[in-house]
Amino acid sequence: DYDWSAVAYHRVETRYSYDVISEKYGRNKVFYVPTSFDNELFHFIEAYPPKEPAVGYVGRIVPWKGLKEIAKVCYELGYPLYLMGKQDKVTYWESIPQEHRDNIRFDFLNCKNEERPEFYKNITCYVGFSGSGRETGTLGFVDALASGVPVITTPAGLAADIGRHEENML
To answer: β-strand 104-109 against 81-87: which pairing, if any?
Structure first.
């Protein structure tokens, strides 16, 4: 819904964004440049799976990424939820039941870029849960795929561009 008319050119990371913005403002004003991936940083994890089952979540703590729902399921299954990202919407965080928050591991909250590969060594699967039209990601799933960690995600952003259900992710 944002008015992009004052912007001279747009660089977008997904085909969805390209289609939506170019339809409204013209294809000559939009450049599709997929998010790049650092293949020097991430490598396939030979020692998979970790000893204990765990779920990984990457992103800010905001409502549209579904952390509350992921935390609930992890709590019910008895799997710890590893979080890599940063605190954003405090009121949303506070809306997550305390027992679900107590199940979240913060070892990688605000981690440095070079620490990101270590995160994937601790999780059994990566879950990305973002709504279409809202996200260019879920960006963590590319890191997870390169690390050899199974991915469960919604068809939003890059996942819609490269994800194939039951082929390279669910």
So the answer is: parallel
CA distance 28 to 154: 30
Give the whole-angstrom CA distance, residue 144 versus residue 141: 5
Task: Give the pLDDT confidence of 127-155 residue by residue, as tens digits.
Answer: 988 776 666 666 688 899 999 999 998 88
Which has the closest alpha carbon to 43: 164, 149, 129?
Answer: 149
- Token pair recorded at residue 102: 């107590």
Q: What pLDDT score was predicted for residue 2? A: 67
pTM confidence score = 0.78
Instruction: Fill in the DSSP letter of residue 50.
Output: P
Q: Which two tokens stand for residue 168?
A: 């390279």
Beta bridge pairs of residue 127: 152
* Structural contact between residues 14 and 160, judged by C-beta atoms closer than 8 angstroms: yes
Which of 119, 117, 128 lies closest to 156 in space, CA to CA?
128
Residue with tokens 């469960």: 152
Give the dihedral sign, CA 25/131/153/85: positive
Phi and psi based region of residue 69 (left: phi greater than 0; alpha: psi -120 to 50; beta: remaining): alpha
Phi-psi category of residue 133: left, alpha or beta, with phi > 0 → left and psi -120 to 50 → alpha: left
